[in-house]
Amino acid sequence: MLAGNFYTITEQTQEGGQINATIALNAEHPIFGGHFPEQPVVPGVCMMQTITEFVRTVASRKVMLQKASQMKFMNMIDPRQTPLVDVQVTCKDDEAGLKVTAVLKREDKIFMKFQGLFK
């Protein structure tokens, strides 16, 4: 899990199948020493893991990604320049599983958009 180490939750609201949160990135986390020295960038796998952790919160159970129908990395996140990131996750139960739409952004800058299926 990345929560509590790679990022901390500073604000969070949840209503039904939707969660909105603001996370503070830990710019001193060891992952940035290798990704990349002198120019830290949040790895895409960490963005996806963050979304997964919020899906688990909404679903109140462990979930696993089954299908990513859309995963767009639109801008890089430098934790020194953008220490706070807004996370929006919407989950809807479906016969195939849990349909998820998520966005990582800050103000008008979108970092990642995701649509997919979790089980």
From TrEMBL:
InterPro entries: ApeI-like (IPR054545), HotDog_dom_sf (IPR029069). Pfam families: ApeI-like. This is 3-hydroxyacyl-[acyl-carrier-protein] dehydratase. Residues 12-95 form the ApeI dehydratase-like domain. It comes from Chitinophaga jiangningensis. The lineage of its organism: Bacteria, Pseudomonadati, Bacteroidota, Chitinophagia, Chitinophagales. Signal peptide: none annotated. It comes from the Bacteria. GO terms for molecular function: lyase activity.
